[in-house]
Design goal:
- The chain is α/β, with parallel strands linked by helices.
- It has an eight-stranded mixed sheet, with helices on both faces. The protein has a two-stranded antiparallel ribbon with strand order 5-6. A two-stranded antiparallel sheet has the order 8-9.
- Helix 3 packs across helix 4 (109-121) and helix 4 (109-121) packs parallel to helix 6.
- The chain is built from twelve helices and twelve strands.
- The relative contact order is 0.19.
- The protein has a single domain, classed as 3-Layer(aba) Sandwich (Rossmann fold).
- A hairpin with a 7-residue loop joins strand 5 (166-170) and strand 6 (178-182).
Length: 316
């Protein structure tokens, strides 16, 4: 039985339970619905090119959040190659569940704050840090430590849990033809995707590509069609300028909500190629990257490279 047969074949109650960790709201309408007050938009699938080498992965090792981020950006070529004076920057970490930082189910808030500091030091006009939590937005912002850490360094942290944060766009995919997508990300000069490496009960892992679902109003549509292909097509539509994976520590079971068994890797992964970043992260977890179906699907769409032998991996 394949994924689509499974999802369509089980009962409504089981779907509600099994997909709750993905933030599936069964009352949300289809992602392809035209019933919206927003004006449809044809956004480009390509992102502006930064000064970073797409064929390079930077693996920053250690335990100090500020040092991890500083070393990573320095090895890439400096924050100035990505963030210019007056730029609006959007960071998309994972604070979708109401867990504390020590529970390792959300992106480390001190790492996020360190990136915000780097961007502001480079002259960014503003840095927005956002997610679409599937538990209480206010509680997630506080419990995750994101709100306090980000605001302490001059950034703005908030949840995009209202339809007014989204606009309808033509995504051009076979599965994902149109979708309500984050206005903040579409209008940003720089978009940084910042997931945490952790277990996921359906897709095996939450990685950068999967983290993009927190930018879509109707995530239920992905599950009602083809989750794997939908994730791949979403990133093909709007690639991040940079993906940073918090692989310092994460839950290795009972994901994505936790609590779960915690493993420490003490690494932060930086890369322009979202497929390459996810591929390397999967190897840390001990899973063959080809087993993460959405990563393979994205590679087949030309989103990025799965062959790490073709990349330059630099550890700092």
């Amino acid at each position: 039985m394949d994924r689509r047969q499974f999802i369509s074949g089980i009962g409504y109650g089981l779907v509600s339970l099994g997909l709750a960790g993905c933030g599936l709201n069964l009352s949300e309408r289809s992602g392809n619905s035209q019933n919206t007050k927003n004006t449809p938009s044809s956004q480009s699938a390509s992102s502006p090119v930064s000064g970073y080498d797409r064929g390079k992965l930077i693996i920053s090792e250690g335990t100090d959040p500020n040092s991890l981020i500083e070393k990573g950006f320095a090895a890439l070529g400096g924050i100035g190659a990505l963030v210019r004076s007056g730029a609006t920057v959007v960071l998309k970490p994972n604070f979708s569940v109401a867990r504390k930082p020590e529970e390792a189910a959300t992106t480390n808030p001190q790492l996020v704050a360190a990136v915000v500091k780097q961007c502001l030091a480079a002259g960014a006009k503003e840095v927005k840090v956002l997610d679409y939590p599937f538990q209480s937005p206010a509680v997630c912002l506080v419990n995750s430590g994101i709100k306090e850490a980000v605001e302490a360094v001059g950034g703005k942290a908030y949840a995009i849990n209202a339809q007014s944060f989204y606009t309808q766009v033509d995504t051009g995919g076979k599965i994902l033809k149109s979708v309500l997508f984050s206005k903040d990300v579409l209008s940003a000069d720089v978009f940084i995707n910042f997931p945490i490496l952790k277990h996921h009960s359906i897709t095996k892992l939450t990685l950068g590509l999967k983290n993009m679902m927190g930018l879509v109003w109707d995530r239920g549509y992905f599950h009602k069609t083809d989750l794997t292909q939908g994730i791949a097509e979403l990133t093909a539509f709007h690639k991040p300028h940079l993906t940073i994976v918090d692989a310092t520590r994460g839950i290795i079971d009972n994901g994505p909500t936790g609590p779960g068994t915690i493993r420490e890797w003490n690494q932060v992964i930086f890369g322009v190629d979202p497929v390459a970043v996810d591929t390397y992260a999967a190897t840390l977890f001990g899973i063959k990257p080809t087993e993460i179906e959405y990563v393979t699907a994205a590679a087949q769409l030309g989103v990025g490279e799965m062959d790490l032998q073709k990349l330059t991996v630099v550890k700092v």
